[in-house]
Amino acid sequence: MSIVQVKNLKKHYGQTEVLKDISVEISEKEVVCVIGPSGSGKSTFLRCLNRLEEITSGTILVNGHEMTDNNSDINKFRQEVGMVFQQFNLFPHKTVLQNITLAPIKLKGKSKTEADALGMALLEKVGLKEKANSYPSQLSGGQQQRVAIARALAMEPKIMLFDEPTSALDPEMVGDVLQVMKDLATEGMTMVIVTHEMGFARDVCDRVIFMDGGYIVEEGDPKVLFTNP
Ligand code: ADP
Ligand code: ADP
Q1: Cα(168)–Cα(188) distance, rounded to whole angstroms?
Q2: Nearest alpha carbon to residue 96 among 134, 128, 130, 129
Q3: What mean pLDDT do residues 56-78 have?
Q4: How far is 57 from 51, CA to CA, in rounded Å?
Q5: Is pLDDT larger for residue 50 or for residue 188?
Q6: Who lines ligand 2 at CB under 6 A?
Q7: Which ipTM score applies to this complex?
Q8: Residue owning the nearest CA to atom 21 of ligand 1
Q9: From 43, 194, 196, mutation site for ligand 2 pocket: most ligand atoms within 8 A of C-beta
Q10: How far apart are alpha carbons 91 and 98 in whole angstroms?
């Protein structure tokens, strides 16, 4: 069953056509990597999926909800779509645990006790239970990114979007973050990942989408596409 259906998506900034005609369906539990040159529209595509950008035309359905309908409840929709950015964007004056529990308490009405239990379970999952009471500035970039992933998961999303999650990290931190993403894939999380990590794309993703100039120019099984004949 497809969880995301994108039809004839176009996005213009003024006269600039950034996404020209994107149609794609993503199945439940599918892990899709989006690759392509800088400026090809990868990041814009992800932000459209999360409604961080208004789309110019076309339709986006996520989990059956029509996202081009102006009356639709964007906040409710965003709860179904977790997003992780290149920059971790953690709240600097809140602890690691508070970063994770804020949205479940404010947006989902969970009690502090419930949210704390969920937060600790997620911190355990990303290997950072002992950092619960630390502040983001006390963590390495890789640790902060793992907290950002836990924070997104705390909303119990149906799908996770990652926009170059390891591009801002020192090389020695990249593996830990990719491992968390690999674990999520194994658990059956639906994911769309913009990345330059070709090894990860080949080993973990079910499908790779190549973008260029605002179009999807090729897509397929990475094990086939990345194998030299
Ligand atoms: P990628 O993620 O593949 O590097 P982006 O989606 O970031 O590509 O950008 C695609 C194109 O859209 C680029 O030419 C970029 O300059 C342009 N662009 C992105 N955001 C904006 C914006 N807010 N206003 C105008 N142009 C933008
Ligand atoms: P990334 O490399 O992560 O895709 P960019 O550096 O392209 O990010 O863009 C960073 C921010 O600047 C984004 O919010 C994007 O919308 C905005 N942006 C990018 N290109 C332009 C542009 N030509 N005009 C206005 N804003 C832009």
Answers
A1: 26
A2: 134
A3: 76
A4: 13
A5: 188
A6: 43, 86
A7: 0.70
A8: 13
A9: 43
A10: 9
